[in-house]
Amino acid sequence: MENQYIQFKKQREIGEIISDTFKFLRENYKLLFSLIFKIAGPAFLILLLCVGYYLFLTFGFFEKIEKSPNFLFSNNFFTPQIFLAAIVMLVSLLIYSSLLYGTVLYFIKSYIENNGVVDETEVKYGVRNLVWELIGTSVIISIMVFFGLLLCFFPGIYLMVPLSLAFSIIVFDKLSIIDAISHCFKLIQGNWWVTFAALLVMWLLIYIIGIIFSLPALFYSLIKGFTMAQEISAAKPSEIFDWIYLALNLLSTLAQYLLYTIMVIATAFIYFNLNEKKNFTGTYENIENLGKGNDF
Questions:
Q1: Model pLDDT for residues 68-100, shown as the tens digit of each residue
Q2: Neighbours of 296 (CB within 10 A)
Q3: What span, in angstroms and rounded, lies between the C-alpha atoms of 105 and 270?
Q4: CA–CA distances in Å: residue 65 to residues 62, 74, 108
Q5: CA separation for the pair 49, 250 (Å, rounded)
Q6: How far apart, in whole angstroms, are the C-alpha atoms of residue 48 and residue 243?
Q7: CA distances (Å), 289 to each of 101, 136, 274, 293, 295, in order?
Q8: Distance CA 226, CA 181 (A)
Q9: pLDDT digits (tens, 9 = 90+) for 130-188
Q10: Burial label, 24 (beta-carbon count in 10 A; 0-12, 13-18, 19+)
Q11: Strand ranges in the chain using DSSP code E only, listed in sequence order
């Protein structure tokens, strides 16, 4: 059965944004995730390795604390390894999220321009030509939101909503980073609460789905802790957090980072919804297409 073409350039209510987001993912997930692994795969692999190493160092602290209770308050607690792992993990996360946004949004752009058919070459070419702009956007947005959160928390929440549209504006409107960030606030004007509600609902759905993938690690730790508690000696945290628990946590992390694809698709629908309310781009295009269809 042939997939039905989804019109992006139109106004939508929150419920339509959510349903069309999952519908688009359901109909295009094979090619979409294939391109995500091809384009963002190396950064994703480095990110997973960093997360694994960071978890390994964290679990190792339990054993050291058991041997020396004062270790937690010593100067050896914050080691260079933990700082290096955290920095590399942060950098790889920024690069991965940038490539993820670029891949998904150029996928949607190709989908729109080719009436539902995605050209892999167009997606790869688009991301490759815009990779530094995408990474720069991630860095600037992260800094703005970070300082916003430091200022009584709420300014950061306020900034998150319009800035979530920056990547879509860069890809679809072809604006520079500064112009895109400025355009975010113009586009969101008068629609902040509606956009916030849409993003919040999507985040909650992704969070709930993510919990499902974290259950194996949770059940494993509970079962092992309960089993060890039945023994004569008390269960030690270092014995509960073993390699199996580490592997299950990595699988959970992998799933959660991939689930963020849903949020990227949702931001594209939100962008086109707001753009249509402000500029009626899709409406004008439909009128022009009707006019062309009536030419003889």
A1: 555 454 555 556 777 787 888 899 999 999 999
A2: 2
A3: 12
A4: 5, 11, 50
A5: 9
A6: 15
A7: 30, 37, 22, 6, 10
A8: 51
A9: 999 999 999 999 999 999 999 878 899 999 999 999 999 999 999 999 999 999 999 99
A10: buried
A11: none
Pair of tokens at residue 220: 């494993």
φ, ψ of residue 262 to 5 degrees: the values are -60, -40
**3-state SS, residue 26:** helix
Q: Over 118-131, what HEC string results?
A: CCHHHHHHHHHHHH
Asked if residues 270 and 184 have their Cβ atoms less than 8 Å apart, the reply is no
**Distance linking the first and last C-alpha atoms of the chain:** 33
Rounded-to-integer distance, Cα 29 and Cα 33, Å: 6
Q: Select from 294, 268, 280 the least CA-distant residue to 112.
A: 268
Residues 244 and 4: beta-carbon distance below 8 Å: no
Q: How much is the pTM?
A: 0.89
Whose tokens are 């594209």? That residue is: 268
